[in-house]
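Please annotate the following for my students:
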Amino acid sequence: MKPKILLVDDLEDVLAALRRLLRSCDLLEARSGKSALELAAAERPDLVILDVHLPDMSGVDVMEKLALMTPKPVVIMLTGDDTVETAGKSLAAGAFAHITKPFEAKDLLEQVIKALEFGEKGRGKRGA
């Protein structure tokens, strides 16, 4: 079964790059925090790749709401803001990884594989 990944970014070029990299997965897309939360509730993705800066709310706020879901999706945060503060906030809020844009394809794919493996282990422990 293909992993279900929700891509959340307001920039089409970022979504297009993610689509190309993850084309073997079942992909969902959102361009705002609100639509991301609605899609996540309806589709229950295994992984969410989430931009820190969205037009309607911060990615960290979205991640905190995703953390209340059962099962909770694993989250990789993306940001163009390469600061220690932004990375710290993302990781402290529960992100599996924090990746700076522009990203290297191999680095992102490596984190996606690790995140999906982590999520599988977590679901196995919960018996879901």
Notes: The domain at 4-46+56-80+94-121 is CATH 3.40.50.2300 (Rossmann fold). The longest helix spans residues 105-126. Strands lie at 4-8, 26-30, 47-51, 74-79, 97-100. Residues 47 and 74 are 5 Å apart (CA to CA).
